[in-house]
Amino acid sequence: QVQLVESGGGLVQPGGSLRLSCAASGFFFSSYDITWYRQPPGKERELVARISSAGGSINYADSVKGRFTISRDNAKKTVTLQMNNLKPEDTAVYYCNAALRGSSVSVWGQGTQVTVSS
Question: Strand 112-116 and strand 10-12: pairing?
């Protein structure tokens, strides 16, 4: 079964850290670019961070640069988003997406809630 499963969300105080994980199964993970998106309450989904299939290219949204780090382990078929110095505006449902470059093939996870609040 083709799927992505996110984990690691939760409630954290401002300034705290969380580590999100995305585990893949059922497809050739190392061929796919992986992107973390988030959807804040009442807002559109937005790109957070992207890592290319081999990990050689990484991009971040300006709002998370210097605070978030994306990484991947193709042998374990996982992608991690380390989030530090969290702010209330980081509150959102975070989604993991796998996309095969040059095609319309795309896989989405179910999302994990991150809430930053005191």
Answer: parallel
Q: Are 107 and 95 in contact (CB under 8 A)?
A: no
State residue 28's pLDDT score: 92
Residue type, 52: S
Alpha-carbon gap, residue 68 to 55, rounded angstroms: 16
pLDDT beyond 90 at 113: yes
In angstroms, the CA 51 to CA 28 distance is 16
Q: Give the helix/strand (H/E) hosting 87.
A: none
For residue 50, the cross-strand partners are 35, 59
pLDDT class for 47, splitting at 50, 70, 90?
A: very high
Task: Look at strands 92-99 and 33-39 and give their pairing.
Answer: antiparallel
Q: Are 54 and 75 in contact (CB under 8 A)?
A: no
Model confidence band, residue 56 (pLDDT cutoffs 50, 70, 90)? very high
